[in-house]
Amino acid sequence: MVGFVGDRLGRLGRFAWSGWSGLAAVALLAAVWQAGHEAYGDFILPSPMATALAAIGLLAAPENWTLLLVTMRRALSGFFLAGILGALLGVIAGYAPAVMRLSRPLLTVALGVPPIAWIVLTMIWFGASDATVAATILVSATPVVFVAGAEGVMTRDRGLDAMAEVFGAGPIRRFLSVGLRQVCAHLLPALALALGTSFKVAVMAELLANAGGVGGALARTRAMLDITGALAWVMLSVVALVVGEYGLVRPVRAELERWREAAQPWGVKR
Amino acid sequence: MTALTLTGVGHAFFGRTVLSRVSLSIRRGEVVALVGPSGCGKSTLAHIAAGLISAREGRVANHYRRHAMVFQDPRLLPWRGAAGNIAYPLELSGMSRRERDLRVRQSARMVQLEGQDLDKFPVELSGGMRQRVAIARAMAIEPDFVFFDEPFTALDVALKRRMQDLVIAAARHNRFAALFITHDLMEAIRVAHRILVMHHKGQGLVGERIVDGEPGNRDDASIFASMQAFLRSDIAFAHVHDVDERRRT
Ligand SMILES: Nc1ncnc2c1ncn2[C@@H]1O[C@H](COP(=O)(O)OP(=O)(O)OP(=O)(O)O)[C@@H](O)[C@H]1O
Ligand SMILES: [Mg+2]
């Protein structure tokens, strides 16, 4: 138990330490941004400092928190829906070649239609509501997860399956104890991608459907030519996405990939 | 008392026959080595006998309680430590955690895995250690029948010997019967009571020899002498060391 907690704390510490490189990257971005600001002036590109202050100013107002939370709620519910549906169908397709062959063309179609077209369609179907945003996220994020799930099943180590079968594991037991872990290795990067897509699509759908949230706020700043405000909202939604990713996807991934870390030679821990 | 009987077993992959008319029977507590050139269908036969593939023809009858298998590659779960891998079949059989820990330690000790190594992931173990974990995993469930599918082919000579001794000792101690597949005749003579030779295209068994004495009591000189005698007196054995089956078409 002590070892278990200690190991996690150690990894958390290493992760926090790697935060320095993240900070350096942010500083670099800020420097380039500042240079752009000095070249083009306040109207085109407000300074990073002014933007950060504006963002903090936005957070001071409780109604802005509600806007952020609305977007986050929509993005996350769409993400969960897409994640569960995509993973489920992907795993089924991975095990059943017939389903896979059927879904390939459908997938191509689904991926070929741009998200913006889906927004128009779902707006007509559902109006300016949560359902519009959720449905748009669903169609744009599910295919990625689906493909990863199917890939995970199809590229699994069949030798391990045979091993489990020899020792008396039935099909379900085999999937839970052997297949699932291998599927997850494929699924998690796809889920991180899907989470990003969910946030982007949520904001876009809100903006176009005028459905409130961060997208609605962006539409308002655009109408008022409030560049600083627009950038501040962008900053806030990026922060929300980062919080979502590091709070949700990364911990699960770190837990599942402990053995991969063990495989890395000393000194190359990333 | 027989532990395993195969009668007229045959199999085909995608219409290509790789195995036909194989019959054999293994008594309780008997270690039988199955030798034959590469690609003659030994693994396929073991997989059929273990129920991983269903045979296209023939019958498989087993009278043992439970079997285990040591594969050619260790086939460890990469996300579990050595101890977790040894415990895996025990978990499948629904054993309590306390009893499991005990069994894992017992069977790890048998293959000389030390306490610290038990926490390591397979990627952190050497090839020989991984194979030892695989053997410990098979032994942990106390099987009364074990399939060994060329378990030591990838190991160097010294390690191979140690592993063979380990199997001999385990077979004695736990009194399991085994089908030991190999294409190394020396290895077969060291570990087995009886040796079967498979036709180079899987068309039945073409030779059978009972090895004098008990496994573990044979010295190197007598093993070498037996091998020479087998190779001289039985043409079936002469083909065993032909590695490339395509040369003989
Ligand atoms: N899953 C499979 N699909 C198609 N053909 C297969 C399959 N497994 C084995 N074979 C074929 O069956 C034949 C026998 O294979 P098998 O693995 O049983 O040989 P083996 O005697 O174990 O060889 P080795 O000593 O090299 O392990 C080979 O010609 C191989 O190409
Ligand atoms: Mg083989």
UniProtKB/TrEMBL annotation, chain B:
<dbReference type="InterPro" id="IPR027417">
    <property type="entry name" value="P-loop_NTPase"/>
</dbReference>
<protein>
    <submittedName>
        <fullName>ATP-binding cassette domain-containing protein</fullName>
    </submittedName>
</protein>
<dbReference type="InterPro" id="IPR050166">
    <property type="entry name" value="ABC_transporter_ATP-bind"/>
</dbReference>
<comment type="similarity">
    <text>Belongs to the ABC transporter superfamily.</text>
</comment>
<keyword id="KW-0813">Transport</keyword>
<dbReference type="InterPro" id="IPR003439">
    <property type="entry name" value="ABC_transporter-like_ATP-bd"/>
</dbReference>
<dbReference type="InterPro" id="IPR017871">
    <property type="entry name" value="ABC_transporter-like_CS"/>
</dbReference>
<dbReference type="Pfam" id="PF00005">
    <property type="entry name" value="ABC_tran"/>
</dbReference>
<dbReference type="GO" id="GO:0016887">
    <property type="term" value="F:ATP hydrolysis activity"/>
</dbReference>
<dbReference type="GO" id="GO:0005524">
    <property type="term" value="F:ATP binding"/>
</dbReference>
<feature type="domain" description="ABC transporter">
    <location>
        <begin position="4"/>
        <end position="225"/>
    </location>
</feature>
<keyword id="KW-0547">Nucleotide-binding</keyword>
<dbReference type="InterPro" id="IPR003593">
    <property type="entry name" value="AAA+_ATPase"/>
</dbReference>
<keyword id="KW-0067">ATP-binding</keyword>
